[in-house]
């Protein structure tokens, strides 16, 4: 019995059918936990009698037609599959290209990538590179200790007595408001000439060192002048180091007084506002100056703490947090009568940037009330430090208390928790202007091996929140040679523009004694550092033999990534972070043993994000890893199974026999493009003298000009790259002769055919098609190339459309859809994929062809079947396009083809933007699933400066788990150059209202970092053909969906929607701003880390008598009043000169 045509609001007989597979349609997907906001996903296994009526349901307004039956739509799907396969067999030339490779078998060899040997060789090369830097570090540290020991302290030293190059002098003299202008006229500041050096990406002078002194430190103080005096002798050691190793980059001595002396000399990068760079807050310095820390910060929020004092405390806590690195653990609590954590963190957490950001935001919410209860605060802190059931540093333990004063010494608490061993140091900070007796605070610090500080005003915060490091350095200094161990940092962005670097650090100790028989000095003089560019390490890794999807990576003992193709150098990163993700296909990275420095190998099945971040592929990857000896790093190699072997061309004999030196040289000349197709060559470093260019035509011109001067076997050229390029030029040219040249592309509505190879050749035919070719000329960086290697069959790629841009313009038939597939060779039992071939479909012509193939006609010239009132017909995608929607959607959920003419300009858009109701139904019925991830390296438009004082890192450096998680698989072989651990101290942002990038030396506005949430869709568990109902009450829609075999396409036929009620629930695919995953939840599942293997937190000979002092400088009352008024008003104060009169620095 025929069912009447439905109309909006009309009733339906019987219960609404639920989406389910038709009988005999294969396995059904299991239940899913994904539940979109629009409602629960429907199971496909519910059987309802009314579903049997589906084939008979009539189209609205077309009583002579019924919805096509399942076997009809399956027939259409087979026709589509056959059409695509036929075109690819004729024009793709996969089989012909295989034969061409075999015909030229004498021109190349098949080489094998042996993962274990490869990774061990690279690890050894990196170890040798770093060892040369270690030797230079040791020479510098020994020399510095000897120079300082021989130095005679001068009380009456004057600025004009010291001759040095002030790296900031030029910038200060250019600023007419600078207080240093007048002083510079009498200071003996050198004026230097500089030369451009590409290795440093900067202008340098190799004859001198440069000095940088923080803006808030008075350059004319006695301490600073004496420091400049004795460190001048380091200049000759720097120069000698470079003579022995010309590859050395920045050599730096960071002094505990704040002075930075570095070589070679170069002008400091002048910021727009105040330069707040302080070497003592750089993580490389912190790491080298003390062992890891477990710190609990407790803040007095009793009623007496209010107004300016509370503001000073909040800022002080933020500054204190900035002195911690990723090796440290911390928690922050407030107390009055009771103590409670200021944030959601209930125990010590790693002091990474995202955790510190949570603390800093929480601290701003502290409110003063109640009475002071030191006992509650200290008991809470000791309990935190005694909790052994959590991950922590397990080295230096300390409590930092900020208060406005009090009388209770809480001796009973110290007796209970800390005496007699005194394993926890106590540092007390008296904050604000008051008349309280500070003796109890001094006693607490002195009785617990700590130090007492005063912070009367905003100008004292930076100095007094970082000098506790001097105390922590005492056991290290007293340990002597045992503590003189080189440590290597995580990757970060160099402040002088070198890019991504790692730094080797070595502490420098004070070896002086106050007199004969006196105790050994306990002070650390500073930290010596030598930078190693990530590019220098990268050059030691194999480049192109690993294929497009193979690469090398390295991690440190925290699991943070040191080396990875996705690591991007971006400055002004204010919101970086890291997350605890599980490794795909296994449990935690601890089981790999990679963080622990073990060797290993593992094959995993994982999800990989495409280069354009639109698609997800499930792939198999082989991981092999080894430790890099004498470092904190481990090195890993990732290889797809198809990259086990690679081609290596050997054309030496042929080249010598040809007078012109090039057997296929003429095919690279533009004059041959008209007949042979346009050739794009990958912009690789084929030869040292080859001028790079982003314009491929210009690069090709430069390449040809250079090849006319040298032979491919020249020592200045990379023979592997050059020979493979020549080989692939000839291989693809033969494909033109055998297949493309004699075919009529218009007959099959093709705009172009193309081939791309591992050797770096992309050939597009005919030549005119190259005008609209937008793919990357480097195949390893082209999304279609890499996806084709990872997928069997034909990969469709519609043109990318941004929803914010205009729809596609179908003018001159230039808009096309790429269809590509990998060429797999089997040579002597060895399988590899050296090339990808494909076609570019004419979008408009194939949309018309799609209608015919999904219709009741067998070919385009056949007349359409006519149905009268007495005869019933099934609808098809051509005749009934007003009632029936037919589309092809790719595996990412993007529209590829449609039978609706008005949707042609929406090809390439996420299908939810075209038909939200239908896309949601496909997702709910498990045709698609989705993956959400976070991009911590995203760059966004500059944001207005906020209120929080922070020390944002310069580059987000992810963990290895982040990379293994989907969000990081965006660039495997392209070394596009970024955690939380590439530090950019933007200290005192609250006080000066300054952007950290500007404080660090950024001379121009840059995009700021942000976290972006990414969502990608990919095919779910349904592989069979299904009919289903979209249940919208009285406005339900029928639809049929079926995967097309050997493609990445889904064929969908559906009734067109009639009622607006069905337009509910829109799936989103585009990136959105995010704060990242909930940090409070992540800390409950901390990632595994090994932590440093050395700890210097105790020495029996330590002298703890030096345990308290006041502010670092005694400013006038007027200065104090003005600073406090500025703070209260929220205005940026002008830094005042400080006499850094740390008594223990006077030697």
Question: Care to describe what's here?
Answer:
- The structure is a single chain.
- This protein is α+β, with helices and mostly antiparallel strands.
- The chain folds into five domains: 85-110 and 662-858, no CATH class; 120-174 and 185-285 and 484-533, 2-Layer Sandwich (Beta-Lactamase); 291-465, Rossmann fold, CATH 3.40.50.410; 541-646, Beta-Lactamase, CATH 3.30.450; 887-938 and 1010-1073, no CATH class.
- It is 25% helix and 22% strand.
- It contains 30 helices and 44 strands.
- The strands form eleven sheets. Strands 8, 9, 10, 18, 19, 20 and 21 form a seven-stranded antiparallel beta sheet that branches. Strands 11, 12, 13, 14, 15, 16 and 17 form a seven-stranded mixed beta sheet that branches.
- Helix 2 packs across helix 22, helix 3 (115-150) runs antiparallel to helix 7 and helix 9 (308-321) packs antiparallel against helix 10 (353-363).
- The longest helix has 36 residues, at 115-150.
- It is globular and about 110 Å long.
- 53% of the residues are buried.
- The model is unreliable at 1-63, 181-186, 571-590, 656-664, 945-956, 966-1005 and 1110-1147 (pLDDT under 50).
- It comes from Propithecus coquereli (Coquerel's sifaka).
- Residues 294-472 form the VWFA domain.
- Keywords: Calcium, Calcium channel, Calcium transport, Disulfide bond, Glycoprotein, Ion channel, Ion transport, Membrane, Metal-binding, Signal, Transmembrane, Transmembrane helix, Transport, Voltage-gated channel.
């Amino acid at each position: 019995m025929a069912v009447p045509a439905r109309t909006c609001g009309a009733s339906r007989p019987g219960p609404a059918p639920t989406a389910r597979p038709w009988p005999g349609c294969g396995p059904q997907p299991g239940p899913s936990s994904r539940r979109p906001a629009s409602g629960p996903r429907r199971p496909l296994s519910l059987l309802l009698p009314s579903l049997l009526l589906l084939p008979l349901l009539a189209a609205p307004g077309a009583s002579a037609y019924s919805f096509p039956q399942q076997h009809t739509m399956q027939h259409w799907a087979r026709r589509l599959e056959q059409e695509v396969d036929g075109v690819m067999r004729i024009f793709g030339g996969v089989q012909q290209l295989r034969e061409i490779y075999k015909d030229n078998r004498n021109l190349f060899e098949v080489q094998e990538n042996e993962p274990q040997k490869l990774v061990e060789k690279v690890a050894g090369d990196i170890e040798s590179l770093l060892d040369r830097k270690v030797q230079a570090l040791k020479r510098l540290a020994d020399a510095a200790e000897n120079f300082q020991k021989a130095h005679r302290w001068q009380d009456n030293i004057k600025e004009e007595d010291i001759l040095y190059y002030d790296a900031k002098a030029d910038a200060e003299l250019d600023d007419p408001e600078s207080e240093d202008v007048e002083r510079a006229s009498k200071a003996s500041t050198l004026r230097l000439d500089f030369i451009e050096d590409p290795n440093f990406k900067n202008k340098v002078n190799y004859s001198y060192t440069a000095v940088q002194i923080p803006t808030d430190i008075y350059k004319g103080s006695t301490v600073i002048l004496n420091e400049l005096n004795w460190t001048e002798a380091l200049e000759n050691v720097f120069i000698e180091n470079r003579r022995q190793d010309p590859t050395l980059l920045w050599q730096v001595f960071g002094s505990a007084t704040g002075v930075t002396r570095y070589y070679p000399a170069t002008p400091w990068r002048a910021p727009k506002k105040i330069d707040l760079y302080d070497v003592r807050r750089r993580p490389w310095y912190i790491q080298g100056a003390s062992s890891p820390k477990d710190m609990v910060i407790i803040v007095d929020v009793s009623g007496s703490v209010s107004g300016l004092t509370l503001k000073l405390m909040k800022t002080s806590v933020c500054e204190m947090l900035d002195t911690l690195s990723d090796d440290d653990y911390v928690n922050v609590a407030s107390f009055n009568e009771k103590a409670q954590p200021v944030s959601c963190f209930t125990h010590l957490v790693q002091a990474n940037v995202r955790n510190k950001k949570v603390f800093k935001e929480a601290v701003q919410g502290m409110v003063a009330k109640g009475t002071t209860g030191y006992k509650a605060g200290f008991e809470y802190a000791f309990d935190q430090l005694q909790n052994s059931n959590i991950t922590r540093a397990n080295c230096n333990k300390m409590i930092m208390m900020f208060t406005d004063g009090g009388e209770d010494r809480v001796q009973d608490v110290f007796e209970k928790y800390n005496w007699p061993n005194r394993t926890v140091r106590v540092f007390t900070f008296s904050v604000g202007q008051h008349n309280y007796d500070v003796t109890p605070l001094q006693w607490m610090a002195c009785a617990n091996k700590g130090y007492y500080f005063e912070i009367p005003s905003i100008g004292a915060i930076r100095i007094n929140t970082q000098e506790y490091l001097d105390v922590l350095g005492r056991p290290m200094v007293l340990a002597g040679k045992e503590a003189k161990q080189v440590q290597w940092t995580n990757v970060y962005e160099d402040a002088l523009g070198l890019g991504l670097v790692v730094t080797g650090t070595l502490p420098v100790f004070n070896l002086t004694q106050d007199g004969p028989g006196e105790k050994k000095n306990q002070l650390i003089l500073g930290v010596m550092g030598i930078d190693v560019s990530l590019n220098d390490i990268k050059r030691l890794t194999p480049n192109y033999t690993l294929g497009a999807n193979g690469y090398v990576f390295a991690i440190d003992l925290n699991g943070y990534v040191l080396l990875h193709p996705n690591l991007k150098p971006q400055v002004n990163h204010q919101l970086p972070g890291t997350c605890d993700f599980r490794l795909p296909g296994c449990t935690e990275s601890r089981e790999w043993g990679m963080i622990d420095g073990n060797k290993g190998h593992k094959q995993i099945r994982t999800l990989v994000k495409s280069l354009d971040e639109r698609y997800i592929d499930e792939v198999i990857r082989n991981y092999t890893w080894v430790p890099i000896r004498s470092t904190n790093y481990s090195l890993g190699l990732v290889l797809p199974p198809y990259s086990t072997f690679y081609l290596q061309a050997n054309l030496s004999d042929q080249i010598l026999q040809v007078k012109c030196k090039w057997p296929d040289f003429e095919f690279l000349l533009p004059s041959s493009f008209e007949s042979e197709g346009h050739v794009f060559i990958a912009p690789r470093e084929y030869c040292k003298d080859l001028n790079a260019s982003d314009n491929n035509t210009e690069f090709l011109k430069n390449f040809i000009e250079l090849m006319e001067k040298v032979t491919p076997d020249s020592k200045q050229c990379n023979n592997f790259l050059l020979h493979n390029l020549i080989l692939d030029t000839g291989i693809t040219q033969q494909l033109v002769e055998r297949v493309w040249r004699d075919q009529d592309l218009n007959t099959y509505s093709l705009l172009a055919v193309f081939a791309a190879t591992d050797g770096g050749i992309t050939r597009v035919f005919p030549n005119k098609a190259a005008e609209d070719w937008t793919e990357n000329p480097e195949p390893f960086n082209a999304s279609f190339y890499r996806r084709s290697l990872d997928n069997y069959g034909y990969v469709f790629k519609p043109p990318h459309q941004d929803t914010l841009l205009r729809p596609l313009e179908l003018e001159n038939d230039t808009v096309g859809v790429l269809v590509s597939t990998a060429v797999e060779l089997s040579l002597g039992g060895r399988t590899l994929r050296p090339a990808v071939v494909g076609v570019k479909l004419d979008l408009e012509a194939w949309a018309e062809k799609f209608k015919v193939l999904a219709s009741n006609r067998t070919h385009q010239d056949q007349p359409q079947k006519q149905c009268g009132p007495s005869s019933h017909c099934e609808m098809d995608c051509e005749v009934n396009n007003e009632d029936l929607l037919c589309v092809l959607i790719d595996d990412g959920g993007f529209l590829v083809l449609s039978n609706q003419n008005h949707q042609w300009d929406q090809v390439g858009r996420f299908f939810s933007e075209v038909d939200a109701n239908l896309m949601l139904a496909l997702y709910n019925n498990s045709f698609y699933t989705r993956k959400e991830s976070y991009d911590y390296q995203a760059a966004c438009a500059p944001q207005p400066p906020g209120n929080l004082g922070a020390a944002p890192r310069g580059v987000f450096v992810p963990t290895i788990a982040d990379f293994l998680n989907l969000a990081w698989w965006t660039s495997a072989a392209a070394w596009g150059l970024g955690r939380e651990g590439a530090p950019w101290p933007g200290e005192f942002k609250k006080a000066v209202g300054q952007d950290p990038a500007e404080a660090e030396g950024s001379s121009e506005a840059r995009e700021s970092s942000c976290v972006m949430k990414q969502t990608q869709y990919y095919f779910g568990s349904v592989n069979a053909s299904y009919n289903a109902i979209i249940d919208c009450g009285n406005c339900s829609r029928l639809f049929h969906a079926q995967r097309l075999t050997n493609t990445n396409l889904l064929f969908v036929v559906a009734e067109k929607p009639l009622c607006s009620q069905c337009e509910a629930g829109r799936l989103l695919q585009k990136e959105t701003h995010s704060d990242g995953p909930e940090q409070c939840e992540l800390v409950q599942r901390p990632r595994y880390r090994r932590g440093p293997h050395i700890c210097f937190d105790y020495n029996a000979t330590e002298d703890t008598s030096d345990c308290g002092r006041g502010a670092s400088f005694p400013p006038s009352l007027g200065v104090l009043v003005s600073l406090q008024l500025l703070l209260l008003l929220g205005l940026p104060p002008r830094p005042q000169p400080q006499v850094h009169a740390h008594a223990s620095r006077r030697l």
